[in-house]
Write a structure and sequence with these properties.
Blueprint lengths: L20 H6 L1 H18 L17 H4 L9 H4 L12 H11 L9 H5 L5 H17 L4 H17 L4 H19 L6 H7 L6 H14 L9 H12 L3 H16 L8 H16 L6 H7 L3 H14 L11 H5 L18
Helix pairs in contact: 7-8, 7-9, 8-9, 9-11, 12-13, 12-14, 13-14, 14-16
Length: 343
C-alpha cells in the first residue's frame, strides 16, 4: 500500500493511519498497538521531558563564571546566562557564526524536483511532509528531528529518482535516521512500520535507511532554520508566544517547496520578525543585524512570504497537520493568529 495515489487529483484523500483516528479507535487490536507504542515512548521520556522555558538572568555568581575571561564580543543575552554551562555563553556566538558559514553546504538545490524526479512532484512532497509532522507529534519527538528529517529527504531526492510508491518509505527511513541522530530514546523500526499501515516491511525500512545513509555518505550534520531561530529568539528576548508563532511558520515552510530558495538563517529571521511584530515584543535591532547579517528590508521580504503560508486562501491550507498542532494550548494556539494583514 502506498501513501501516494496514482490519480494526482485524489492527493488530498490519501489514507493516513494517524489522522484517521476514528478508524483506529474502532479497531481494538490497532488501538491496543497504538497505546503500546505511545505508552512505551512516554515511559522512556518521562524522566527527561521538560516544558519549554525561557531562562531569566541569574543574580547568583557561580564558580563557572569566574573560571574564564569573557569574550570581548559576547552578547548581553549570553551574559545573562553566564552561569548556565548548558547555554555555552562563552561559545554561543562562535557556534552561530560557524553555522552561518556552513548552512548552505548540505542543502538540496531549490529546483531539484524538476531535474531529478519524474514520477513525483512538489505536491506529493508536501503531502508526505504534512503527514510526517503528524508522526513527529504522535511520537513526541524533539523539534530538530523534524527539520533533519526534511533535510535528509530533500538531499536524497535530489540525487536518486524515487517512484511515488516508495516516497513514503523514503520519508519514514529518513525520520528513523533523524531519530537515531537526535533522540535519546528513538522509536523502533516496528513503530514506523505501524504508522505506514504496514505498507512496508521492517526489512524494506532498514534497506532504505542504508540506501539513504550511503547516498548521503553519512553526512548528517546540517544547520537547520530551527537552530538559527532558537539563537535569534534568545538574542531578541522574544516572549513565549512569539517563539511558538515563529516555530509554526517554520514548520509551514518545511511543507512549501518554493521556500527552499531561502537559506535556513533567513527563514529563521523571517519567522522571528513576524513573531516579534505580531506580539509587539521588539524590533529588528543592531544585535540581530550583527548576528544574522541580514538587514531589516531583506528580512521583511522573507517574512511577507512566510505570512502568506498561514493565510486562509493559501493552496496548501488543506494540509492541516501543522495548523492542528499549533492550535493546541501548549503551543499558545498561535495557529489562530490572523496574518492576512501582515505588512
Amino acid at each position: 500500500m502506498s501513501m501516494i495515489p496514482e490519480d494526482i487529483s485524489q492527493m488530498q484523500t490519501v489514507k493516513d493511519p494517524l489522522l484517521n483516528l476514528g478508524d483506529i479507535s474502532s479497531n481494538n487490536h490497532n488501538s491496543s498497538v497504538s497505546m503500546t507504542i505511545e505508552t512505551a515512548i512516554d515511559q522512556k521520556r518521562m524522566s527527561i521531558e521538560k516544558p519549554l522555558s525561557f531562562p531569566k538572568p541569574s543574580n547568583q555568581g557561580g564558580s563557572f563564571s569566574r573560571k574564564m575571561t569573557l569574550p570581548l564580543d559576547i552578547e548581553p543575552a549570553d551574559i545573562e546566562r553566564i552561569d548556565n554551562p548548558q547555554c555555552v555563553p562563552y561559545y554561543a556566538k562562535e557556534v552561530c557564526d560557524y553555522m552561518k558559514e556552513t548552512e548552505e553546504k548540505y542543502l538540496a538545490k531549490p529546483n531539484y524536483m524538476c531535474k531529478s524526479q519524474k514520477d513525483i512532484n512538489e505536491k506529493m512532497r508536501a503531502i508526505m511532509i504534512d503527514w510526517l509532522i503528524d508522526v513527529h507529534l504522535k511520537f513526541k519527538l524533539l523539534p530538530e528531528t523534524l527539520y533533519l528529517t526534511v533535510n535528509l529527504i530533500d538531499r536524497y531526492l535530489e540525487l536518486v529518482p524515487v517512484s511515488r510508491q516508495k516516497l513514503q518509505l523514503v520519508g519514514v527511513a529518513c525520520m528513523l535516521i533523524a531519530c537515531k541522530y537526535e533522540e535519546i530514546y528513538s522509536p523502533e523500526v516496528k513503530d514506523f512500520v505501524y504508522v505506514t499501515d504496514k505498507a512496508y516491511t521492517r526489512q524494506e525500512v532498514l534497506e532504505m535507511e542504508g540506501k539513504v545513509l550511503s547516498t548521503l555518505k553519512f553526512q548528517l550534520t546540517a544547520p537547520s532554520s530551527f537552530r538559527f531561530f532558537e539563537r535569534y529568539a534568545q538574542l531578541a528576548k522574544a516572549n513565549e508566544r512569539a517563539y511558538h508563532l515563529g516555530c509554526y511558520l517554520l514548520e509551514l515552510s518545511l511543507i512549501e517547496y518554493k521556500m527552499m530558495r531561502y537559506t535556513p538563517s533567513m527563514l529563521a529571521c523571517g519567522a522571528l520578525y513576524i513573531g516579534m511584530t505580531m506580539e509587539g515584543c521588539g524590533t529588528w535591532n543592531d544585535v540581530l543585524v550583527r548576528n544574522s547579517r541580514y538587514e531589516e528590508p531583506a528580512v521583511r521580504n522573507c517574512a511577507r512570504e512566510l505570512s502568506m503560508l498561514a493565510a486562509p486562501l493559501h493552496e496548501k491550507i488543506a494540509l492541516t497537520a501543522a495548523r492542528r498542532k499549533y492550535t493546541l494550548a501548549k503551543f499558545g494556539e498561535v495557529a489562530k493568529v490572523d496574518l492576512s494583514n501582515f505588512q
